């Protein structure tokens, strides 16, 4: 933490990786020792760490996995037990399984981690029925719908990236004004709601693009270059377009 004045808090898939520019962003971050990185992802810890190493991104100040259900503190990746306890208080995967096991058009697919249940759902009518059943059974949880895959992920009610980030910044004794956020998908929405300055990369959700506040840049660049472009402006450095014009 010594010397760190700013925090980049970013999603990984589709934001930091997957659209090029990863080497440029990694190089920039390694040259700015006053910027620490917090990664927030739907991936598990092992998968997230593998991607961070693959693209040679800086070791994290903290890593929030499973959409914020778990928090690990770097560089040794010590789990935040108090945070995990909060998620466990109302997380009832067995009740969820029992509630949905006999529903027509709904099939259990996998449990990719202890915080996520995935179901195949036939159509929107079945999806509505699932949500109604969960409410009727008074099961506290969040539902994440992937329309393309026809997959419904069910996670703890408190699994929110923005909520995890607020906890992390409090522990780091950092203010919201010192944090810059980056994302691309709807599960990054609570990161980009206006508490922080930030960027939605060019490949980001059209739905998000239309409803985000003015504090969030809409970068013309995809993926890591979009993050780099926004972060440079946050740090009062020339944007990528300004650098290109100057060159």
Automatic annotation (TrEMBL):
Residues 6-234 form the Sucrose phosphatase-like domain. GO terms for molecular function: hydrolase activity. Keywords: Hydrolase. InterPro entries: HAD-like_sf (IPR036412), HAD_sf (IPR023214), SPP-like_dom (IPR006380), Sucrose_Phosphatase (IPR051518). Gene3D superfamilies: 3.90.1070.10, HAD superfamily/HAD-like. The keyword Protease does not apply. It comes from Sulfobacillus acidophilus. It comes from the Bacteria. This is Sucrose-phosphate phosphatase.
